[in-house]
C-alpha cells in the first residue's frame, strides 16, 4: 500500500469525489488538505457549482468524466460505498489511473475492484498507515507526498 500511495501522489492533478461545503464533513477536510498542501485539486460534486474555502473558492465539476485531465488526475473518494462503485466504474472508463478510497467510502468489493482495475489503489488496513482507521490522506498524505518526491509547500486555508 505504501508503494500505491507513493504512485498516487506522483500524479500531477488531484480531485476529491464527494467534496463538500460542510466544514464538519471529510469531503471538506480532504479538499482543504490538498489546498493547504498547494496541490492542484478539483472538487467533484454534482449538486454545487463551487466550494469556498476561507482563502479560495473552487469551481466544482459534476462527475469524473467532466475533469479536464482524468488520465492524469488521482481521485480521493469520500462518497458512501453505494456511490463509490459507480464512480469507480466511471473513473475506469475515463482513464483514471490512481484512486484513494478514504475510510468509510468503500466495502470489500469496492476495494477489490479498485485494486484490480487501477494502476494505483490506496485503501483498507494494510501495513504502512500511520492511523488505526485505515489509509487516510489526512494521516498518511504527507509521508506519501515525501515518498513521491514532492516538496511540501503549505499555504493558508
Automatic annotation (TrEMBL):
Domain CoA-binding: 8-105
InterPro entries (alphabetical): CoA-bd (IPR003781), NAD(P)-bd_dom_sf (IPR036291)
Record-given protein name: CoA-binding domain-containing protein
Organism: Knufia peltigerae
Amino acid at each position: 500500500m505504501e508503494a500505491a500511495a507513493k504512485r498516487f501522489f506522483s500524479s500531477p492533478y488531484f480531485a476529491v469525489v464527494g467534496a463538500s461545503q460542510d466544514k464538519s464533513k471529510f469531503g471538506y477536510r480532504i479538499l482543504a488538505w490538498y489546498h493547504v498542501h498547494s496541490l492542484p485539486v478539483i472538487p467533484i460534486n454534482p449538486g454545487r457549482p463551487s466550494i469556498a474555502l476561507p482563502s479560495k473558492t473552487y469551481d466544482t465539476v459534476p462527475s469524473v468524466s467532466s475533469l479536464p485531465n482524468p488520465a492524469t488526475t488521482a481521485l480521493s473518494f469520500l462518497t458512501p460505498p453505494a456511490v463509490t462503485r459507480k464512480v469507480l466504474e466511471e473513473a475506469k472508463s475515463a482513464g483514471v489511473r490512481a484512486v484513494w478510497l478514504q475510510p468509510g467510502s468503500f466495502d470489500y468489493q469496492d476495494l477489490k475492484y479498485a485494486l484490480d482495475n487501477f494502476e494505483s489503489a490506496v485503501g483498507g488496513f494494510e501495513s504502512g498507515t500511520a492511523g488505526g482507521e485505515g489509509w487516510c490522506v489526512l494521516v498518511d498524505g504527507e509521508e506519501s507526498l515525501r515518498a513521491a518526491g514532492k516538496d511540501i509547500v503549505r499555504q493558508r486555508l
